[in-house]
Every structure is written in C-alpha cells, then in structure tokens.
C-alpha cells in the first residue's frame, strides 16, 4: 500500500530514478521489519511519509532514497558503507548528514543558544537537501505527536518552535513553516490553542460575509483596471494571531486582520498596477506598506504587502505577487530545484537561486538536469563561523579556523591559561587542532600549567591572543622583578650597603624621579635590562649619603629555573660547569653566554652591560647543547650514533645532516639534552667509541 501511494507521486521522475526509489523502499522495509512506531504503525510508514513530502517539492531521486533510508543507519545494523554500495556515495552522504543532525540534543531555551543551534544545523548540513529531509522528518513527527508522552510532546514542540520552524522560514518554505508553528503551538500551549481556535471559528461565521464581499470587490476592481489576477481570501494561522496578541498586548477582539487576501498576477508591472487599483478601492493604512519586490526578504521571498481600511472600517491585509513569486513563497529553496526531464536547460528561476544563497553557492554547471545541478550545490551558510559543543551541551560560536586553545579562552581565561590537553569528540587531540562544526570539545587543565608563547602562532581570536600576551607579560614582569631584586642587591653590596637598609622615603623619592608607580615595576625594569642595577643602586644611596668606597660586585647565582627573565644564549648553549657571563639585554632580561662565546666579544668593552654570574651547585635540569659529528658515509650510521647517545642517558632534541657530493664523510648536527659538562663528556666518550665517528666538536658561536 505504501509503495503504491509513493509511486503515484513520482510521475515527474525518469523511469530509472523511480526504480531506484522503489529499491530504496524495499531496502528500508526489510531493514525496519518488525519495528513499530509509538502509534503502533509499522515503522516503514514514517520514512515513506517523509519521502512523500519531498516528492511534493519535486526533489531528486537521491533525496527521496535518503529520506526512505534516513533512520536505517541509526536503528538497524546497516552501515553507511552498505548504503553507498547499494545506492551510491551521494545517497550515503545525505543519510550520514541527517544521522549527524539527529544525534544533536537541544538542551537550552536561551534565545542566543537557539540562534546558534539553528546556525550550527545549517552549517553542518553542507548539502541543503539534508536540511530539507530533516524538516520533512520533523513535520511528520509533529503530525503524529499524539502518541508521545506529555513531557516529550512539550520538549519536541518547543524545539520545533525555536529551531526548526525558523529554519523553514529562513529557507523560504512558507507552508511548512506555518504548519510547524501551528502544530508546535497546539502541543506547547494546548489550552491557549483550543481557546483561540474556538474564537477564530466563531469569528469566521460572523465575518464570512465581509470576506466574500471584499474578495468580490477586489476581483471586480482589478477586472475594471484590465489586470488579469487570481484573488484568494485566507485565514491567518493561529500562532501568528497568538504572537500578535502577545507582542502588542491585544485581546482577540482587537485583532482584526485575522483574514488576508492574496492577489496573483502575471508580471511585476502588474503588481504595482494592482496596488494602485486597490489603493483607489480602499484607503491604505499609513506606514503599513512594504515592498518586498524591490527589496526581497533574506530567504528570497518577494511580494507587495499593504494594509487597507476595508468595509465598516475593518483592517485587511493584501499580498500582491507574480506566479513565480508565489511558487518561491510556497516552496522556497525547493522551488528552484524542480526536476527537469531530458536535456532541457535549467530555467531562469532555478539559476536565480535565493539572493542569500547566491554568494555561497558554486554552481559549476550551466545546464543539465536537476540531479547534476544538486550535485554541485554544497552550501556553507556561515562561512566565517564554526559551532561547537562544551561537554555540558552549550553551543559556542567561534571564528572559522579557531583551535582548541581559542575555545579554551572562549570558555574562560583561567581555562585557557591552565590548559594542557584537549579531547575532541572524546578523543585526545593536539591543542593546535582546528575545530569543525558540531565538534564536542573538552579542555583538560592543570593548576601548574601556564600559557606557551608558541600558542601565539596558531590562535586566531583576539581574546586568546590578548590573554596569552598579558599572561606572558605579567609572568615576565614578575620573574624580571625577582631577578631585578637579585641584581640590585648585588650592586648595593658592592657599594657597601644592603637592600634592607634602604628606607621607604628613599624608594618613594626614586620612584618619583623615574616616574614609576611601584617598587615592583622598577625591579622588573632592572631584571629586564631596561635599567642598570649599578646606576639604580648609586641613585638610591645618593638620595641619602654617598658610599665611602666600592668593592667588586659578587656573582649572581643561576639555577636554570628562573623562567623568562633569564635566557640561555642559543649561539653557545651554556651548561652547568661552563664558565659563564651574563649580559643585560633590553626586553630579554639577563642573557647567559659561555665565557669563550664569540658573540660576547663586542660587549667586553662595556662593563656596564655585563654582570658576573655563576652556576648554583644544586642545578638539576636538562640543558640543550649543540654537537657536530663528522662520520663515515656508511649505511645505518645514524642509528648507531642515536643508540650511543641514548646509552649515555641523553635525549636528542633535533638532528640535521649535510653531505658533500662525492665525499666519504657526512656532517651531522645534533641538539642534545645534558645535565652538565660531566654528562656531556660521558656522551662524547660513548660517541668516540664508534669506529664510524671521525670527529666530534661542541658548537659555540
């Protein structure tokens, strides 16, 4: 029975396409065999009803097959691959798209969340047919909602009203939009619905004569003006009456325009001629005229809307449009995709898809049938945004290209500052992972973690960027202040004084001179190389009394854990045990070099630039060191070298090779991690044992 009813609606399809749809029906019926809906009907009745709705919009065979199969993957053992094998990749992709939308749970009633949810649904469905199947699925579910429990009815009705009806409106599916709203209203507010339906029914009898009289008068006036037109009277749907009562605080008796009239004419000039004729028949209500022909709605809808004072002063609404505009108003997106038989070109209506879609579609084919046309319609409705879920189901909108770190900062700056890892769709992923529509994102944090400067290379949101920079700046300032305090204490000791002997009055006077807000700020400037410790020490003492004599500055102890305020020069890579020297560098703070580093020669002349530093004997952390190895050009030599390094308990951070053409030797460059000079000596001893190693050099400068 189901198949006969469906077959009657497929007259617009080619015979081979009808055969494909019938094959999908048989496949779906067998897969759902033994399954029943809550109403007691066999489950196959639902996919057939969805396919029938799409057939009324004249959608292509692929969409109809997907409608028949849309619950098969979710509710049976059939996989996406099985569908692809039987019906082709496009049908499988459509079914997969609908399944993904079905998995999403709408969990909040907040307006902004509802808008995000609508956008995410549209963004996830790159092929608009996925949304059309989903809307038809929702409409049939709403028509059969009586079988559900009251709680479930209300939840589904609210979701329909807040999510799916606005999407239908956005796509220009007017009849579907109105029916979804009325059905949702009926189940969400059953008492209000019944009271209003009763009032409209009672009013219908009283006003019937007026409606007929107005319709006759309009038709007669247009005939006199020589305009061919079809005039129909219509009753406004219940939810729009209810919404008007709510928004304007009106009682039902105050809502006069529950009836409207539609005038359909042959072309655009006739629309404006009809408008003039009607304005001469009934007086227009000032400020109530809208020209959606000159400026169409976002969903492509076009009509002239005017409100008039009808007989007995009753306000009436009239819409004037062409046949083509009427088709778009009723069928929306689907009106452009009517199936064409043979090799006819797509007509102008199909090529002029809605304005809001035009910039987002890439129609690669100028002719061919609608299936080919649809194949190329991959829509990205919101190209600049992605919509992702938090673990609690909240939807967050982020710019396209946003990474897990951007998401972490969007949740909260503390989450961003302490994030260490991320799970995307319950699987661990790198923090630089680019997020996609519909991803569920969970950030893993640690109280000891802090932002990594490398994050600045891939975050794209201003919020993440500014928080990372501010945090790093604050950390640098705090670490700089700690180092600055050591440097100042060292300079004061050399001038026979101590930090503890400097009183508050001296500090205040100095800060006023330097125009700084706090002692912390001054110490940070010393630590970050913006001010010299000796100069500041002398100025502090000069405010009180001149020092009697000066002795040599004592060295600063380096532990290797000072953070951003102390940098180890990349040119010579100093390690514990190396004689070292420190240079005050603006913005970088204290930069530590080895004594014999060629890069420090130019600073030797300026004693104010460098400070004495020494290693803390208890330093226990890995330091990087660079080695150059000249090795015989033999097979497997890299593996032997790597094994020797591992044997000496060292890690390889980086390796590169340089080979002279025709040479018997290759140069290898390693960056290794060692604890100190003794550890480095052990590594080099292990390497020298290898017969293939000709020469080892530690690289500096």
UniProtKB/TrEMBL annotation:
<dbReference type="InterPro" id="IPR003607">
    <property type="entry name" value="HD/PDEase_dom"/>
</dbReference>
<dbReference type="InterPro" id="IPR045600">
    <property type="entry name" value="RelA/SpoT_AH_RIS"/>
</dbReference>
<dbReference type="InterPro" id="IPR004811">
    <property type="entry name" value="RelA/Spo_fam"/>
</dbReference>
<dbReference type="Pfam" id="PF04607">
    <property type="entry name" value="RelA_SpoT"/>
</dbReference>
<feature type="domain" description="HD">
    <location>
        <begin position="43"/>
        <end position="142"/>
    </location>
</feature>
<keyword id="KW-0808">Transferase</keyword>
<dbReference type="InterPro" id="IPR007685">
    <property type="entry name" value="RelA_SpoT"/>
</dbReference>
<dbReference type="InterPro" id="IPR045865">
    <property type="entry name" value="ACT-like_dom_sf"/>
</dbReference>
<dbReference type="InterPro" id="IPR012675">
    <property type="entry name" value="Beta-grasp_dom_sf"/>
</dbReference>
<dbReference type="Pfam" id="PF19296">
    <property type="entry name" value="RelA_AH_RIS"/>
</dbReference>
<feature type="domain" description="TGS">
    <location>
        <begin position="384"/>
        <end position="445"/>
    </location>
</feature>
<dbReference type="Pfam" id="PF13328">
    <property type="entry name" value="HD_4"/>
</dbReference>
<dbReference type="InterPro" id="IPR043519">
    <property type="entry name" value="NT_sf"/>
</dbReference>
<dbReference type="Pfam" id="PF02824">
    <property type="entry name" value="TGS"/>
</dbReference>
<dbReference type="InterPro" id="IPR006674">
    <property type="entry name" value="HD_domain"/>
</dbReference>
<comment type="function">
    <text>In eubacteria ppGpp (guanosine 3'-diphosphate 5'-diphosphate) is a mediator of the stringent response that coordinates a variety of cellular activities in response to changes in nutritional abundance.</text>
</comment>
<dbReference type="InterPro" id="IPR012676">
    <property type="entry name" value="TGS-like"/>
</dbReference>
<comment type="similarity">
    <text>Belongs to the relA/spoT family.</text>
</comment>
<dbReference type="InterPro" id="IPR002912">
    <property type="entry name" value="ACT_dom"/>
</dbReference>
<dbReference type="GO" id="GO:0008728">
    <property type="term" value="F:GTP diphosphokinase activity"/>
</dbReference>
<dbReference type="InterPro" id="IPR033655">
    <property type="entry name" value="TGS_RelA/SpoT"/>
</dbReference>
<dbReference type="Pfam" id="PF13291">
    <property type="entry name" value="ACT_4"/>
</dbReference>
<protein>
    <submittedName>
        <fullName>Bifunctional (P)ppGpp synthetase/guanosine-3',5'-bis(Diphosphate) 3'-pyrophosphohydrolase</fullName>
        <ecNumber>2.7.6.5</ecNumber>
    </submittedName>
</protein>
<dbReference type="InterPro" id="IPR004095">
    <property type="entry name" value="TGS"/>
</dbReference>
<feature type="domain" description="ACT">
    <location>
        <begin position="626"/>
        <end position="701"/>
    </location>
</feature>
